[in-house]
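Our collaborator T.R. sent over the components below with a one-line note: 'Predict the complex.' Nothing else. No constraints on interfaces, no templates requested, no preferences about which chain binds where. So this is a plain run: every listed entity goes in together, and whatever single assembly comes back becomes the starting point for the next discussion.
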Amino acid sequence: MKSVVAFVSGLLFALGLGIGGMTKPEKVVAFLDVAGDWDPSLAFVMGGALLVYFVVQRVALARPQPLFDRTFHVPNRRDIDARLVVGSLLFGAGWGLGGYCPGPALVSLASGRASVGVFVAAMLAGMWIFQHWNARRVSGRSVMTRRGRRGACAPCVGVFLVLTSKRRRPVGAHAAQRGS
Amino acid sequence: MSNFTPLSSFAGGTLIGVAAALLLVGNGRIAGVSGIVAGLLRRPVGDTTWRALFVAGLLAGGLVLQLTRPSAIGPSVVGFPLLVVAGLLVGFGTQLGSGCTSGHGVCGIGRLSPRSMVATATFMLAGAATTYVLRHLLGGGS
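Returned assembly:
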């Protein structure tokens, strides 16, 4: 039954993303482009999702256990550490750059476009790189403290700075580069 | 404010909320896509069945969209080199920051988690800043 729930949840999640407009990178970028022709639609996606989830999670977590498992697997950390902030900065930069966050990217694979395949492959590589980097840190330096060492992410920030020096180009645009 | 779609976006959002609620009520799990996917890459393996099936559901949902309303899945807005950089940043960043739009933005904020509120504000600001730099300072895109 857990399997059925997981599959149906993923299926509904994908349909929600598609209907909501999250699987259109152009719309995502228009949502983030507050200084331009701003399209606030995607705030409504989040609002709708939060409305439902907020109510249901209150009822659900008041129960001793979920329907098909013995315990809830819900994070309970409350500390704000450097990893949380730096990680979110990097993720946000990548989101703004490509217009894809993980869910919509996976859903968009069904379009068969090579571009989203490239993004997903790079995303999986990024996760894999993190896991190796993190494992090395844990095994290499006694027991890791909760607060990540400052500057540990310098390479990523470097990558970010380099990429922001490039410019956004529509896929398939063969026109000569315009001067900025 | 062209292409403003509050109704369909709200409808899609409620569906996402229902999907995430289902996973919590049924399996006691957080519907955080980046975390679910990353759990499949982790070694030693374990706990993979429900993760794989959730991802299979996402892919199946994508197929349903592609067959019923193909316009729902839009084309990429940047070329391959930038998509590679974007993908690496999203993959690494979501792991370092313990979540993405779904895990922090919906499930975390839905539980009023302070970590998720900080994370969501941070990645939204970073996304807006990146878009500003690309679109308005460097002159690419619109």
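Summary for T.R.: Chain B touches chain A through 120 residues (CB under 8 Å).
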